[in-house]
Amino acid sequence: MSRLAKEKQFVAAFFEEAGAEIIASFQKNLTIETKSDRNDLVTNIDKQIETLFVQRVGEKFPTHRIFGEEGMAAEIDTLDGPVWIVDPIDGTLNFVAQQKNFAISVALYVDGIGVYGAIYEVEKGDIYTCEKGFGAYLNERKLPKVSSDAAISDHLLIANLSAIRINERLFEAIKESRGLRLYGAASLEYMYVATGRAGAYMSANLAPWDVAAGKIIAEELGCIVTRLDGSQMNMLEKGSSIVALPHVHKELMQNYLR
Ligand code: IPD
Ligand code: CA
Ligand code: CA
């Protein structure tokens, strides 16, 4: 039986509150700052939503720690105990430029193991959720497992330029596939693979908050999630990432990535 009723209810209420703040922000001027480079943006809304999350976790789960992109909670250097990993807006460039193709990503890890993941595509009103071991859902609908035998040639691939630049053999994989796509929000790109809309999504450099929820949901549905060299991810470190249908992962590893 599900053990996380309180946590699920908490995330649903947070999404409702945060989604309303984000939609209200569409009518207001944003304050936009750059971080590591001119395309690495943070807005006042990213900070506002992460601050809200920290405040709400503090009220409901005062012993839980938080690992968030905008650093609104105390720093952490271990994943011991319950840790929420949050990206208040994944796809900030899309949020600023398009007001769509962005999401809030929230995951709960306990002693380093992902137990609950939720991704809210605010503009569409779509919420993906998964308690590990209890299936994954899109809104109220239980999602089917992905196909285990579909090959690269049956699917679109999603890849960041960063991934292609460090591994030129990916050009050959893309030629073998049905074509290349790129959406600009890692959490949603994980969901495109988890729901069979693409065979794989590859990036050379993602942060834990980009993938923490997506990994739980995608693995529950039968996808394989690793670094580009096939090694396991550590949710404290940035690094490369591939999420793929099982057979596509195998083909990419055998023929293109290693
Ligand atoms: C970014 C998006 C983007 C990915 C970047 C991430 P942000 O997240 O997920 O798709 O390519 O590496 O940093 O900064 O918009 O939360
Ligand atoms: Ca992100
Ligand atoms: Ca972000």
Describe the protein in words.
With 258 residues, the protein is α+β, with helices and mostly antiparallel strands. Helix content is 36%, strand content 27%. It has two domains: 5-142, 2-Layer Sandwich (Fructose-1,6-Bisphosphatase, Chain A, domain 1); 152-255, D-Maltodextrin-Binding Protein, domain 2 (3-Layer(aba) Sandwich), CATH 3.40.190. The protein is built from eight helices and 14 strands. Helix 1 packs antiparallel against helix 2 (44-60) and helix 6 (186-194) runs parallel beside helix 7. The protein is globular. The chain starts with a helix and ends with a helix. 42% of the residues are buried. The structure holds D-MYO-inositol-1-phosphate and calcium ion (2 copies). D-MYO-inositol-1-phosphate binds next to strand 4, helix 3 and strand 12.
Question: TL;DR?
Answer:
This protein has 258 residues and is α+β, with helices and mostly antiparallel strands.
The overall number of domains is 2
Oligomeric state of shown chains: single chain
Count, helices: 8
Radius of gyration: 18 Å
Task: Provide the fold topology.
Elements lengths: L4 H21 L6 E3 L6 E3 H17 L4 E4 L13 E9 L1 H7 L4 E8 L2 E9 L4 E6 L4 E3 L2 E2 L13 E4 L1 H6 L3 H7 L2 E3 L4 H9 L5 E7 L1 H13 L3 E3 L12 E6 L1 H12 L1
Parallel strand pairs: 3-4, 10-11, 10-12
Antiparallel strand pairs: 1-2, 4-5, 5-6, 6-7, 7-8, 8-9, 12-14, 13-14
Helix pairs in contact: 1-2, 6-7
